[in-house]
């Protein structure tokens, strides 16, 4: 004898072994299967009624600055004597190629434990990211000495053209330095800052370097915009 119970519902199978014909056996088997299906349905309904919906929170987005900081400080605890390494880590990973983007930043911890940034960068987003990285490492950052280029001291004439046959663009305004590229006569330049008789510029090809200020004809934005449409004379051969 086999019995199923669900609350007050019960039924019994007395003796399938006493069925005398295959037809009666098949009929009784179908009846049992129908009853079993009804019982399973009742059980499922009872369980589903008691179940509460489960709310799964969305996955949290990891902070890319925190991930970067963990490469050098896994516990995210910064040390003042490693400020130079933190800035270099940021420059290599997020400030891109210094031949194309201006990035010259130094940091120093003051007596109050704050980090003072100085130097220059080319984009405000670079400043925000660098300060954010140092904040992740637990530093309070002062960045009023960190200039965003072009420098205001250039005034309205923040553009120029090469006015000599060749104007070498250097990695630094003074020795030791290396040549970045050769700027040719008439080549447009985008000025960023002036230092030691040299202008930090983007050449017509986009490369960043220091060109002698004496080799540059400086103009304002309006004159720079007119240059491609104005008539010009260029010497192509020396007949002297």
Report the strand count.
12
Mean pLDDT: 83
Q: Count of helices?
A: 5
- Gap between N and C termini, in Å? 124 Å
Biggest sheet strand order reads 11-10-9-6-12
- Largest sheet, described in full? 5 strands, antiparallel
Query: What's the SSE pattern?
Result: EEHHHEEHEEEEEEEEH
Radius of gyration: 39 Å
Bulk shape: elongated
Task: State which percent range the strand residues make up.
Answer: 25-35%
SSE-based structural type:
alpha+beta
Could you name the ranges where pLDDT drops below 50 across 5 or more consecutive residues? Answer: 1-19
Q: How much helicity do the residues have?
A: 25-40%
Summarize this structure as a short list of keywords or feature phrases.
5 helices, disordered N terminus, 29% strand, 240 residues, three-stranded mixed beta sheet, single chain, 28% helix, alpha+beta
Description:
About 30% of the residues lie in helices and about 30% in strands. It is α+β, with helices and mostly antiparallel strands and about 240 residues long. A 5-stranded antiparallel beta sheet has the order 11-10-9-6-12. The protein has a 3-stranded mixed beta sheet with strand order 3-4-5, with helices on one face. Helix 2 (about 65-70) crosses helix 4 (about 125-135). The N and C termini lie far apart (about 125 Å).
Brief rundown of the structure:
The chain has 240 residues and is an alpha+beta fold.
Write the layout of secondary structure elements.
Layout: E1 2-6, E2 9-13, H1 22-50, H2 64-70, H3 83-94, E3 103-109, E4 115-121, H4 124-136, E5 141-148, E6 159-162, E7 166-170, E8 179-184, E9 188-195, E10 198-202, E11 208-212, E12 216-219, H5 221-226
Parallel strand pairs: 4-5
Antiparallel strand pairs: 1-2, 3-4, 6-9, 6-12, 7-8, 9-10, 10-11
Helix pairs in contact: 2-4, 3-4
């Amino acid at each position: 004898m086999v019995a199923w119970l669900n609350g007050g519902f019960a039924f019994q199978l007395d003796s399938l072994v006493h069925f005398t014909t295959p037809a009666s056996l098949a009929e009784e088997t179908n009846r049992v299967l129908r009853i079993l299906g009804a019982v399973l349905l009742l059980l499922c309904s009872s369980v589903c009624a008691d179940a509460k919906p489960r709310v799964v929170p969305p996955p949290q987005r990891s902070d890319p600055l925190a991930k970067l900081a963990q490469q050098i400080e896994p516990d995210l605890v910064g040390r003042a004597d490693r400020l130079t390494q933190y800035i270099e880590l940021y420059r290599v990973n997020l400030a891109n190629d210094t031949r194309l983007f201006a990035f010259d930043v130094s940091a120093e911890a003051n007596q109050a434990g704050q980090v003072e940034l100085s130097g220059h960068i080319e984009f405000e987003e670079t400043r925000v990211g660098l300060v954010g990285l140092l904040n992740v490492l637990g530093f309070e950052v002062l960045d009023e000495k960190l200039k965003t280029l072009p420098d205001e001291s250039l005034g309205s004439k923040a553009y120029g053209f090469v006015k000599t046959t060749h104007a070498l663009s250097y990695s630094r305004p003074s020795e030791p330095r290396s040549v970045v590229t050769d700027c040719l006569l008439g080549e447009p330049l985008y000025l960023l800052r002036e230092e030691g008789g040299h202008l930090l510029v983007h050449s017509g090809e986009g490369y960043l370097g220091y060109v002698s200020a004496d080799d540059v004809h400086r103009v304002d934005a309006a004159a720079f915009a007119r240059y491609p449409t104005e008539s010009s004379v260029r010497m192509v051969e020396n007949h002297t």
